Amino acid sequence: MRARLTLLVAATTVLVLLAFLVPMALLVRQVAADRALSRADDVVRTIVPLAGDPDALRLAVAVQPVPVSVFLPDGRVLGTPATPTPAVRLAALRGQALTVDTGDAQELVVPVVGASGTTVVRTVVTDASLTSGVHRAWLTLLGLGLALVLIGLLVADRLARALIAPITSLSEVSHRLASADLTARAAPTGPREVREVAGALNHLAGRIQDLLAAERERVADLSHRLRTPLTALRLEAESLRDPDEAARVSAAADGVARAVTAAIRQARRLDGVSPPAVSDAVAVVADRAAFWAVLAEDTGRVMTQDLPSAPLPVAVAADDLAAALDALLGNVFAHTPDGTALSVSLSARPGGGAVLVVADAGPGFPSSAATRGASSGGSTGLGLDIARQVAVAFEISTSGGAVVRLELAGVTGVNPGGK
């Protein structure tokens, strides 16, 4: 923008100067030519009254600043030697003054009719005399024009800087807001319009901060709303006669409580940015697979697991990875009939990280499966999106069933397998 404003001012200044200097240059040349011709005419008018006195003519011609030739009726020539030109002969014949352009000079001829004949006074104004001082005047005008252009560019640059500085500040504040720095505010400086934009941006930032604070509090209220049903669920689990069944239901209730607590902590972070997270993908996947294996056995499903023996550190929080795997396995149990086989595999990712694949032998995914919030099975449609958020690459496909492939980022400075 700064360069465009400077270029605009430069172009405008140059056009104005051309509109002013070109006519001025032509006028200067015309004035110089008129001045030279006027000086020659004055010389001729000084000599004309002396046409009847040869001695006075001879003296007057000798002191003139320009070359003058006087052609007497008897054929003599006083002053600058010259031969009669067509203009001289025409003036003597007609008795009229003439100004003739000879190509490289202007010839002024004035006849004086006397008793003894016609005397013709002739002077020549050369092109050098016609343009005397013109080039110097043109150089002066050119220098003045360049000075005005430079001054215009300097003023335009200062003006552009004054306009761009507050706009740049607004851009920096908007980037800070986009980076979750909700305390960023713009200084209301610059032109009135820019100040209004700064005020609107500050108002928007404050409104976003208020809305996020209210949203965090609403999410935090979930802990109180879910505490009673979770407590009731634990009591119901403790009343079960089968100890294994009671332990499994209690563990599920504890998992729900942990998930709710993690969601509340995430929502109440003031900056909205999660700290760097590291977990062992093998340990997390093994734990959640063991939990779902019990339900798979109850529903007649064959669940196979393929996990490496060495740890695989990934840049994903354990709770987030567990939630993603639970969402994928929950989809399998919710959208496939009992007895459908499924598998969970985990392998090292080239360059660090891990690759998690969850597959089943069910009917596969509908066309809307990749759309957040869309579900053909009456669910929230958020399961795949929860899994997608923890992966650096996410792929779903249907090949004899549903297959979901997640690539998990590695931890910088940590080799796969802990080597």
Summary keywords:
10 helices; 419 residues; single chain; Beta-Lactamase; five-stranded antiparallel beta sheet; five-stranded mixed beta sheet; rod-shaped; alpha+beta; Heat Shock Protein 90
Question: Quick recap of the structure?
Answer:
This protein has helices at residues 2-47, 54-62, 86-94, 127-130, 134-178, 192-238, 243-267, 281-298, 318-335, 383-389, and strands at 68-71, 77-79, 98-101, 105-114, 117-126, 279-280, 303-306, 313-314, 342-348, 354-360, 393-398, 402-408. It contains ten helices and twelve strands.
Write the layout of secondary structure elements.
Layout: H1 2-47, H2 54-62, E1 68-71, E2 77-79, H3 86-94, E3 98-101, E4 105-114, E5 117-126, H4 127-130, H5 134-178, H6 192-238, H7 243-267, E6 279-280, H8 281-298, E7 303-306, E8 313-314, H9 318-335, E9 342-348, E10 354-360, H10 383-389, E11 393-398, E12 402-408
Helix pairs in contact: 1-5, 5-6, 6-7, 8-9, 9-10
Q: What's the alpha carbon Rg, rounded to whole Å?
A: 51 Å
Task: Name the assembly state.
Answer: single chain
Just give the CATH class of the largest domain: Alpha Beta
CATH topology of the largest domain: Heat Shock Protein 90
**Percentage of residues assigned to helices:** 40-55%
Number of helices: 10
**Low-pLDDT windows of residues:** 372-380
Number of domains: 3
Q: Can you characterise this structure?
A:
The chain has three domains: 2-135, Beta-Lactamase, CATH 3.30.450; 182-273; 279-418, Histidine kinase-like ATPase, C-terminal domain (Heat Shock Protein 90, 2-Layer Sandwich). It has helices at 2-47, 54-62, 86-94, 127-130, 134-178, 192-238, 243-267, 281-298, 318-335, 383-389; strands spanning 68-71, 77-79, 98-101, 105-114, 117-126, 279-280, 303-306, 313-314, 342-348, 354-360, 393-398, 402-408. A hairpin with a 2-residue loop joins β4 and β5 (117-126). It has ten helices and twelve strands. The model is unreliable at 372-380 (pLDDT under 50). The strands form three sheets. It has a five-stranded antiparallel sheet, sandwiched between helices. Strands 7-9-10-12-11 form a five-stranded mixed sheet, with helices on one face. Strands 6-8 form a two-stranded antiparallel sheet. By secondary structure, it is α+β, with helices and mostly antiparallel strands. The chain is 54% helix and 16% strand.
